[in-house]
Design goal:
By secondary structure, the chain is mostly helical. It has one domain. It has 7 helices and 3 strands, in the order αβαβααβααα.
């Protein structure tokens, strides 16, 4: 198999419905899982935080790079960058926390971990 074809299926991506948080119709963000490098960079220095705090801080840091696309646009009609979407979604702790949880739950290792816990 060609490596470029394999990469399309190897990296986990997920489309998250954000309509309940922003209104409108069919609003979404598409996220991919972080690379090992991104995860390592995001979690460095987080050892003293609680596990949940460290995970949330890491996700917050990785979010802009892992966002593949979004339906959100600015007033000029241009697509928002990952950082702009993060800044917007970060205005609601509960909304952003739910979006992060949906993103994390979409990773294949989350499904494997859930099976192990049963």
């Amino acid at each position: 198999m060609n490596i470029s074809d394999a990469k399309k299926h190897y990296i986990c991506g997920t489309k998250i419905d954000i309509t309940p948080y922003v209104g409108g119709e069919d609003e979404f963000i598409e996220m991919r899982e972080p690379t090992i490098e991104e995860y390592t960079r995001a979690t460095t220095g987080k050892k003293r935080m609680g596990e949940d705090e460290a995970a949330f801080a890491a996700c917050n840091k990785m979010f802009p790079d892992c966002m593949m696309r979004s339906s959100l646009i600015n007033d000029k009609g241009d697509a928002l960058t990952g950082k702009e979407v993060l800044d917007f979604l970060g205005e609601s702790y509960s909304g952003f926390t739910n979006i992060i949880k949906t993103w994390l739950d979409s990773f294949p290792f989350s499904q494997v971990q859930q099976k192990k816990e049963k």
